[in-house]
Amino acid sequence: MAKGRGGMTMPGMGGKQADMMRQLARLQEQMLAEQQALGQETVEVSVGGGAVQVEMTGHQKLQAVRIRPELLNPEEAEMLTDLLISAINQAVEKSQALAGSRMQSVTSGLGLPPGFGF
Fold this sequence. Notes:
Elements: E1 2-3, E2 9-10, H1 15-38, E3 42-47, E4 52-57, E5 62-67, H2 77-107
Antiparallel strand pairs: 1-2, 3-4, 4-5
Helix pairs in contact: 1-2
């Protein structure tokens, strides 16, 4: 009988299937480790010539927003709003790209089509 995750006996599993199960378990562990690491990584985006800067984690959690003081003028509120939206959206896209590339490095040996499941 083949042994599964944790050394448990898995009835009806041949050696090849048991090897595949072990490989999938390792892949799952690697993916979890990469997901945890993404929470520690950040991306930064600057828009409006540095007028607004946004920092976000690999889990798409906003960490910081920096605004040039002159943009805090009430007359510039609409422009500031536009810059914030632009910066946050760009940070989300950049963070998602980071996550995608990290997950692709884990799954690259599996022969899955690009973007499969991520």
